[in-house]
Structures are given as structure tokens and as C-alpha cells.
Predict the structure.
Amino acid sequence: MGDHPREGADLARLGAEARLLAAGPPEAAATGEPLAGRGLAAATLRAGQAEWREGRDAAETAGEFRGRLEHAMRAAIAATLREAEPGLPLLATIGSVSPFVGLFGTVWGIMHSFAGIAARQDTSLATVAPGIAEALFATAIGLVAAIPATIAYNRCTTRLHRIRQEALAAAGALALRMSRRPARLAAAE
């Protein structure tokens, strides 16, 4: 994920769709009109509609019916948001492994310095400097990779968490509204 423009746009789009659900989707959601399009809002509403059209079973309480609607919409939200997460494990790996790669390079550079001291029997700056420079460069490379990856990972996971929470809350409210309206059953189709 990270700061790639497309991925930032994807998160912005998902956020806008979660806000659309929270603000109250079009009445099409509760009238049974088919919803076109892709994305979080459309997938969530289609999942709710599919359950709503089936209607409430005679043995099912109103709360169970609402729960079934909400469960279907939550599953659609989870599936849609999973599609937005494929780069997160890579960012987490880079953010957590890079400092260790830098540390390995630091140890390697210091060992190189000690080898130079032993080979020349000299502790002058000219003998030690190349190994120390390698060590510092390796540390810098590890940090240059780790810091942006960790920041991007944290930003993306925080945004996805907020989007998820907003969409789940909206699904609960929508399920409540939909469960209060009688469904037009297959007999009318």
C-alpha cells in the first residue's frame, strides 16, 4: 500500500463509500431495486438486499432477521476491504526487517574494520574508516527503508480500520432500517 497515488485514491474512495453508507444510501437499498456498480457501498447494499428479498422466516424473530441482514452486509464489507490490503504484509515486513538488515551491515562493517586493524597492525583512521563507513552506510540504508515503510503501514492500517468501523456501523443501522420494511418477495417478480 503506501503512498502510491492509486492506493491513496483507493483508500479515499473506500472512505467516501463508507461515508455514503453512513449517511444513508439511496432508497433503492430498501425497495429492492437492483444496484449497479462495484465497490464497498454497492457490494454491501447488494448483500443486504439479497437477504432482505428472502424476507423473514415465520420462525425467525425480527432481531434474527436484522442480524441476518447485518451479517450479510458485514461479510461483504470484510471481503471488499480485504481486497484493499494486499500490500500491507509487505510494508510490515520491510518495516520490521530492514533495521535488522542494517544491523547486519553494521556488524559486517565493524568486523571489516577489525580485520583491517589486524591485517595492518595499525589503528589509524585510514585503517578503521572504510569499515566504519560501511557500517554507517548499512545502518542508514536499513533506516531509509524501514521508516517510510512503517509510516505507510501505520497510515494505511489506521485508515482501513476507520473505514471498516464506519462501514460496519452503517451496516448495522441499515440492517435495522431494512428489517423494519416488508420485503417484496419473489411472488411479485
